[in-house]
User: Fold Putative phosphoribosyltransferase from Nocardia puris.
Amino acid sequence: MLFLDRRAAGRRLAQRLPEFRGGDTVVLGVPRGGIPVAYEVAAALGAPLDVAVVRRLRVPHRPDLAFGAVGEDGVAVVDDRVLMRAYVSDTGRAQVESEQREEVSRTAIRYRGGAPRHTLSGRTAVIVDDGVHSGSSARAAAAIAKFAGARRVVLAVPVGPAATLAALSRHVDHIVHLARTTTTEPIAHHYGDFTAVDDAHICDLLDAAASDLRHRAV
Assistant:
């Protein structure tokens, strides 16, 4: 076990990000598990916290296997190799993508409660998750930030496989991580408490982050 829980991981991760404190930084948490980590990072950096809403594209009848991810602004990341190995038809792929795009829209409204997204144009986007495995969600989040005009995109995660982190380095400007694992080792093994994060908790953390930012501005 490396981390007591996600928030403890976030506090440790923030110690590796001092150069992004204040200024033009916006922290983007990847729901669901990335939000508690991102909350601590945003608090330490004195930066606003927003969500990068993405949804994994799971192979029909194989919920353990994802062939990519979709996100806001029409972003899509697809691994054609998985599609071929899992014999996913064009019709099956289209149906999964359509369902998950609808869920992206619903989730964005639920988390932001009608509030506008933080402006990323010309700013540094620090994307935070509780870990990476295949990297599809992180790639989709990076694509969202780039589409929104971020000047620099940084990926910050407590843990991830070396091969995945190397592959992701082609899609972001900088990666910060605390530990490396193998592709067969679950992220949960690195946490003492890896309890599922529900939507209510995410909304509470987003509200708390916004309140903290307002108080610092006074």
Q: What stands out?
A: The chain has two domains: 6-54+120-217, 55-112.
